[in-house]
Amino acid sequence: MAQNLTATLEGRNKGEQFASFDVDAFEVPGGRDELWRFTPLKRLRGLHDGSAPATGSAHINISEQAGVTVETVRRGDERLGQGGVPADRVAAQAFSSFNDATVITVARASHLEAPVEIVVTGPGERATAYGHLQIRAAELAEAVVVIDHRGSGTFADNVEFVVADAARLTVVWIADWADDTVHVSAHHARLGKDAVLRHVAVTLGGEVVRRREPGGAVGRDDEDDALPLGGRARHRARGEEGLVVGVRVHEHEGGRRGHGHTLAERLAPLAVARRRSRSRVVDAAVKESGLDRP
Q1: Per-residue pLDDT reduced to its tens digit, 275-287
Q2: β-strands 182-191, 101-106: how paired?
Q3: In the structure, what pLDDT confidence band is assigned to residue 37 with cuts at 50, 70 and 90?
Q4: How crowded is the C-beta side of 237, counted as CA atoms within 13 Å?
Q5: In angstroms, rounded to a whole number, what is the distance separating the alpha carbons of residues 158 and 94?
Q6: What's 27's DSSP letter?
Q7: Distances (CA, A) of 53 to 37, 87, 128, 160
Q8: d(C-alpha 18, C-alpha 92), whole Å
Q9: Separation CA 162–CA 131 (nearest Å)
Q10: b/e map of 244-267 (b: 16 or more CB within 10 Å)?
Q11: Which candidate, 274, 211, 276, places its Cα nearest to that of 248?
Q12: Handedness of CA 72, 77, 78, 84 (dihedral sign)
């Protein structure tokens, strides 16, 4: 079943950027690789070259509410990969290395009054883990999901958003890691007719945080310019000058990529003491981007 799923999903990417579930289908990236040239590869602790076996596991906790189903599934579940196929070696490594995946489904026509809160805690200092999270919004559903990363360690994962016809899903993705954490995350999206996916990413901590947005294009992320966000690879690296705060917002409508913009200039002053003002940063990101409006 897994082989057939791979063949089918890879076929959808023909004519676009190369994608595969097979780690060996990708070369080990180097500093001159356009996809990775703004990422400090030597600080990824082997996530990119196969020298980082899993030595721990991340823990995930999800708030309970009516209309939301949470499942822990194994690799052979036919839903996994429906949101998209890994387009780089680390994403393929993460897909090949996780043991259990978490699938969260918002029921058909459900309009959730409160956000679904997902807390992902890293494997711990000097430990490495791989994960997989899929969020599904059934037809006509409306929901806000907050994915909050905490703790420490080395972590790579894939996050899928599968949004059915006329559903509306808002995602606030937060990297509030301890200063020693390395996190590489690939995001994938599949949208039905008249579906809307709104995606906010807030990076507050971590030594290196690299996030690949839903889509296919790749671009640089070493500056806070207002480049379109769809499919771009974003990274944050801690340097000698201290904390760098990144906030990105992007919207997809009806399966088409929309426009993107940055809110970092407005929000950076709020994150100087990131632990104390963390909720203010998230609230401001949602408000400024219009995600609090229907």
Answers
A1: 445 666 666 655 6
A2: unpaired
A3: confident
A4: 12
A5: 7
A6: P
A7: 24, 20, 7, 23
A8: 12
A9: 17
A10: bbbbbbbbbeeeebeebbbbbeeb
A11: 211
A12: positive
Looking at residues 41-45, what average pLDDT do you find?
93
Are 116 and 40 within 8 A, CB to CB? no
**204-231 burial, b if ≥16 CB within 10 A, otherwise e?**
bbbbbbbbbbbbbebbebeebeebbbbb
DSSP class of residue 29?
A: P
φ and ψ at residue 93, rounded to 5 degrees: -65, -40
Lookup: tokens for 33: 């690789």
The CA distance from 188 to 215, in Å, is 7
Q: Which amino acid is at 113?
A: E
Strands 154-163 and 168-175, bridge-based pairing: unpaired
pLDDT value at position 215?
58
Is the CB of residue 225 less than 8 Å from the CB of residue 191?
no
Helix, strand, coil shares of the chain, percent, nearest 5, are 15, 35, 45
Contact present, 182 and 156 (Cβ < 8 Å): no
* Residue carrying the six token digits 């993107």: 260
pTM score: 0.78
Contact at 8 Å (CB) between 243 and 271?
Answer: yes
> How long is the chain?
294
**What are φ and ψ of residue 286, in 5° steps?**
-65, -45
Q: Which residue has the tokens 């980082």?
A: 52
Q: Are 71 and 101 in contact (CB under 8 A)?
A: no
How many other β-carbons are positioned within 10 Å of the β-carbon of residue 157?
A: 24
Q: Are 60 and 133 in contact (CB under 8 A)?
A: yes
Q: Tell me the C-alpha distance between 193 and 36, whole Å.
A: 33
Q: Which two tokens stand for residue 153?
A: 């360690």
Identity of the residue numbered 284: A
What is the DSSP track for 178-213?
-TT-EEEEEEEEEE-TT-EEEEEEEE---SEEEEEP
